[in-house]
Design a protein that fits this description.
2 helices, two-stranded antiparallel ribbon, Lipocalin, twelve-stranded antiparallel barrel, mainly beta, globular, 14 strands
């Protein structure tokens, strides 16, 4: 996998559910710039039995506008704000890599973007220090070429229904943040074909023909813990369990493991921020 692709993936996953906005109704910088150092392990793709470990430094930029927000894990734009129900258009990037089970098959694109609308409903109210929220994104996936190619290709739709618990003062510690999440994934035929389709030209004795279908794509549980060491330095740890038992592609020969685990530790160092403040807004 190319280093820049790994960096993007680790940045996205290690900073999921950024809890900066309105953590205690404080005003935050309109923008900030800094550096990440990320160490993490992730599967080559969902269902692979091979994990890849990376240690990469990369920059980050945060912008907290009223309509557009550029965070460490995604970029999103506000579509609707109906109190505890918020709709936004967001994008993020993740990566995949071929493993031994895909030997001789086309390389998975190093970058896979997902872009689309999402609804978030705050069950406990979005201004509470402890929040429970439902998240319902539906996104189109677009790959950015494999190997030396740079062409963009549509790869299908991916949707998720998730519930998260966010606590801005876990265990009574003011400078800690905790996020616990559960979610169910579904994807259409195009999305699952991208990862799991086996055409006649790639059949071999231990890899029979496989026709991927759309539908239920698995369950996940994750935990994120942020510790702020001072105003410019923070450490974020992230763990995630994916289970694809019962998924529509579970019987694919490319699936070698029903359970995948991801673990990341990221150290964020803020270098500079804006003197202009942005009032906290948790959408």
């Amino acid at each position: 996998m190319k280093p820049i692709a790994a960096a993007c993936a680790l940045a996205c996953l290690a900073t999921i559910a950024s809890a900066d906005p309105a953590r205690e109704n404080e005003e935050l910088p309109l923008w900030e710039f800094g550096l990440f150092n990320v160490v993490g392990s992730l599967p080559a793709y969902r269902g692979s039995d091979e994990n890849v470990t990376y240690a990469v430094p990369l920059p980050y930029f945060v912008y907290r506008g009223k309509v557009i927000k550029a965070e460490r894990d995604n970029v999103k734009g506000l579509l609707v704000d109906w109190g505890d129900l918020v709709g936004d258009l967001s994008a993020f990037v993740h990566v995949n890599e071929n493993d031994d089970a895909r030997e001789g098959m086309p390389e998975l694109a190093p970058l896979l973007f997902e872009v689309g609308p999402a609804l978030t409903y705050y069950l406990s109210g979005k201004n509470e220090p402890e929040r429970v929220l439902l998240e319902m994104p539906v996104r189109a996936a677009v790959s950015l070429g494999a190997d030396e190619e740079s062409n963009l290709e549509y790869q299908g739709l991916h949707a998720r229904l998730g519930i998260s618990y966010v606590n801005y003062r876990p265990f009574g510690f003011r400078h800690w943040e905790l996020v616990l999440s559960l979610g169910l994934d579904v994807a259409d035929t195009d999305f699952n074909e991208y990862f799991y389709e086996i055409g006649e030209e790639y059949v071999r004795p231990d890899r029979p023909l496989y026709d991927a279908k759309g539908g239920y794509s698995g369950f996940s549980a994750s935990a994120t813990l942020l510790t702020r060491l001072d105003k410019n330095l923070a450490v974020r740890s992230y763990v995630r369990w994916d289970n694809i038992s019962g998924a529509v592609f579970n019987d694919c020969p490319l699936v070698q493991a029903e359970n995948n685990f991801m673990m990341f530790i990221a150290v964020a160092w803020k270098l500079v921020d804006s003197p202009q403040r942005a009032a906290g807004d948790p959408w």
